[in-house]
Amino acid sequence: MRERTIGLLLAVPAIATIALLYMMPLLASVTGAFETEAGFGLDNFIKARDLYTTDILYTLLIVSASTLIIAAFSVAIAGYLTLGENPKAVAILRWLYRWPLFIPFIVVGQVLRTFLAKNGLMNNLLVAGGILTPMQTMSFLDWRGIVIAFVWKQTPFVTLLLAGAMASIDRATIEAARNLGASRLRILFEIVVPQVRTTLFVGMVLSFVTMMSVLSVPLMISAQSPTMITADIAFRINAYGDYGVANALGMISLIMTMAVAIFYLSHNLKEKAR
Amino acid sequence: MSALSMQDGRAAGKRLRLPFDLKWLPRAIVLGLVAFAIFGPLANLLLWTVAERWYFPHTLPLEYGFSYWAKVFSPRGVAWESLFTSVFIALLAVIGSLALAIPAGYALGRLKLPARGLILLVFLIPQAFPNLPVYVNIARFFYDVGLNGTIAGVVLVHVTHGLVFAVWIATASFAAVDAELEEAARSMGAGPFRAFFDVTLPLALPGLMASGIFVFLESLDEFTGAYFVGAPDVQTLPLLLYTAGAGGNYQIASITALLLLIPSIFFMLVVERFLRADVLSRIGH
Amino acid sequence: MKTFLSAAVVLAVAIPPASATELTVVTAGDTNMVDYINEYLAPIFEKENPGDTVRAVGTGPGDAGSQKILERFEAQSGNETWDTDVAVVHEKFAGPMVEQNFLKQYRGDIATGELVTSDKAKMALGTNVDGYVMPMFSSQTAIAYNPALVENPPKSYSEIETWAHEHPGQFGYNGIKGGASGVSFVMGWIYAFGDGDATQLMNGPFEEGAAKEWDGALKRLKDFNADVTMTPGNAGTLDMLGRGEIAMGPVWVDMFYSWQADGKLPPDMKLLLPEPGMPGQPMHYVIPENAPHPELAEKFVELATSPKIQAEGIVKRFNWYPGIDATHVKAELDEASWNKLFKDVTPEDLANYAKPFPIAPYNNAILEAYERHVAN
């Protein structure tokens, strides 16, 4: 009982900050989602469903796919950083992978737009290098562009977390397995990854949430329909001054991310109970 | 891509001694691809900072120069001032969120708490609800309490946003530290604070520092909240970057982005140096 | 930690507090708007009013930028003194600001107020804003094309439609969610192909149920969209034109010229204004009701809308169409600078084909009809 009190006391300042500075302002938005001309109701949600169901599913797909690709890449990179045997290659990779972390999302949108376009720098370089002919080039500025942008920006984030966690696990089991002749791939998936699973999931959930709320990448890379929820929210507000549907879409986005977070947390709690 | 290098490594591990240069081939290809994926877009950014004229059908800029640098750093411009303001705000946001996240993370990671999952969810909400419709409400509240147009106001907004990174990662870090170590220190007569500061905190530090980096970067990436709460008295560089970037002023946006890189990388290096010393000191203990 | 704290103190001291005679100008639009105020207008104003300083804050391009200014006013509507002296907003947002009593009726107070006689200073998308706004400049959308790729440029919406079907993927526009150049193209489409009376869309009155008159036009637009490239935003259209990925697309004339000046578009690109016309809109100077320095703010707008500044700054430097009546501006300029403004789009084109946007309720109804029938 005493531990619970102390624990709550320790957590209270942080909770109070969020409650005061974010939850109270958010409350107005949440009630706004249910406000219609005829009093409280679900009209805004119905309109959101009628107009934006495709966009909602599209958002979910893009963000989920990106999250999985990010997880795969970051396990690969962090795994090599931990288990790689050539110090030079490890050092080069360690120096390489982090750069996108420092580029703000809006600039990621800009550089990838001019890089991935049909006549963008990437295709121009490939054509100049004789790898492609001008007829073979194509533009990636659609859903693929958004996924590439997300993966490019978020992989270093998860990798950084993961590499830190992998560095702090006990080397003895790894060495023992290696002495028994286990391949490094097996060591990675059977010994290392299980030990850093929590960190991996935390990184994935945080990436998922971040990507759900980014506006500049979908706006700058692909404004075709379907588009992402954040772009629709911005459109509802800027074009119509319609906060009702914007807030309803915000609620839908919130529910989607909460579902993912709850899935992770229940999994996490179950594991703790074991 | 790592599968390739893994196989290569495995082959090397199994007595099969290949000549050195052959062993490097797959590694070099993979590293080269990674380098292209990362530096290709970045090269694009760098080229735009010095491109005076660049359009179809030219692969590279037609004319290079620094006239846009002069524009960014014009005597009436606010580039330097807003860069310093942004870094100052980011540092305060890091301090603020760590100060809140360390006790909260300790409680969430180590102690038995009622509704633990719910508390963790609460921190996620500022990131999970797309913020555009919420900022007006925050601004209204901040105008009421006189926080609008102050550095403190912007810092608070960035703290609420960064807190999810700080708290979630701090929770994971503290949970990963073996509780028995702290109990051992307590049984040897150390007080609760002593045990925390001497044993648990140093072990959780790498994670905490990583979360600090994310809060810092998140703050340097944020412009909507900074506009609603900070402007016109507090002008941050990301806000300038947004205006340039969204309007397609590639040159100005690229130069501003390059400016923002400096504090981010510097902060990262400082944190790393700090980290390495700490990790080294633990070896052999 | 200690060194950091002391550094923090030094920094906090080094950032000067807002001085009493600092005029705050908040502007929507591109960086060139901020630059125009900061680098061109402010030095002249500060010279004329020694001791006073001007600072400009940009809120970002497009409707989003103006919306942020409107939200800023809403957030501080309860306060007695606001933090903005002058704001520059898109026409669309002048109406809501007047309706919510955020603005001062100042045009009668300034000497340049009578230099603008056109309707654009009186009505904004169907709302009476007479006296509350002074136009900074007029912006117009037009079709930009690359003469190297388009030999016989189309002259009307029907010809554009045919051309796009004949050259799949070569026409590009940004739909309605990426900025107003695409919106403008869609409005022009409805003016051209809608069954109803286009002038009623522009001048009202609003009639519920008019949406049915657009069904045919929107269906044609959906077919049209199948053969065109969708671009990411106003800047995205220019971007793709500059890289030669599309040959033609709707752009804002002022953005087109500044992209050309920045070396991001080939110099031989051209503009045309198709029949029956495309919408344009002015950017307005407004002064909030509770501006902290109202007199200085009026002086600033007076300077900014004086014939000399409109000629030198708006027309000569930026190739923007002047906000005040053309006759006053033309008198201040040499023939060559004036004619440069009408290089591709002639004054006759403008007189015949430069249209206003539909009034606000029609505007919203058309956008939502597009969302339902074309994008969905």
Task: Summarize model confidence as the mean pLDDT of chain A.
Answer: 89
Could you name the CATH topology of chain A?
MetI-like fold
Count of β-strands of chain A: 2
**Can you list the strand order of the major beta sheet of chain A?**
1-2
Distance between the termini of chain A: 22 Å
Class derived from helix and strand content of chain C: alpha/beta
**Amount of helix of chain A:** over 70%
Shape, principal axes of CA atoms of chain A:
flat
* CATH-derived architecture of the largest domain in chain C: 3-Layer(aba) Sandwich
- Name the helix and strand elements of chain A from N-terminus to C-terminus, one letter apiece: HEEHHHHHHHHHHH
- The SSE order of chain C reads HEHEHEHEEEHEHHHEHEHEEHHEHHHEH
What portion of the residues of chain A fall into strands of 2 or more residues?
under 5%
CATH homologous superfamily grouping of chain A: MetI-like
Explained architecture:
The complex is a heterotrimer of chains A (274), B (285) and C (376). Chain A has helices at 2-34, 43-83, 87-97, 105-116, 121-128, 143-167, 171-179, 184-195, 197-212, 216-221, 229-240, 243-273, and strands at 35-36, 39-40. With 274 residues, chain A is mainly α. Chain A has a two-stranded antiparallel ribbon. In chain A, strand 1 (35-36) and strand 2 form a beta hairpin. In chain A, helix 2 (43-83) crosses helix 9 (197-212). The two termini of chain A are 22 Å apart. Chain B has helices spanning 2-13, 20-50, 67-72, 79-110, 116-128, 132-144, 151-176, 179-187, 192-221, 224-230, 237-246, 250-282, and strands at 51-53, 63-64. Chain B has a two-stranded antiparallel ribbon with strand order 1-2. In chain B, helix 7 (151-176) packs across helix 9 (192-221). Chain C has 2 domains: 2-138 and 281-341, Periplasmic binding protein-like II (D-Maltodextrin-Binding Protein, domain 2, 3-Layer(aba) Sandwich), CATH 3.40.190; 139-280 and 353-375, D-Maltodextrin-Binding Protein, domain 2, CATH 3.40.190. Chain C contains 16 helices and 13 strands. In chain C, strand 4 and strand 5 form a beta hairpin. In chain C, helix 6 (180-193) crosses helix 8 (215-226). The chains are: A mainly alpha (274), B mainly alpha (285), C alpha/beta (376). Chains in contact: A-B, A-C, B-C. At the A-B interface, helix 1, helix 2, helix 3, helix 4 and helix 5 of A face helix 1, helix 2, helix 4, helix 5 and helix 6 of B.
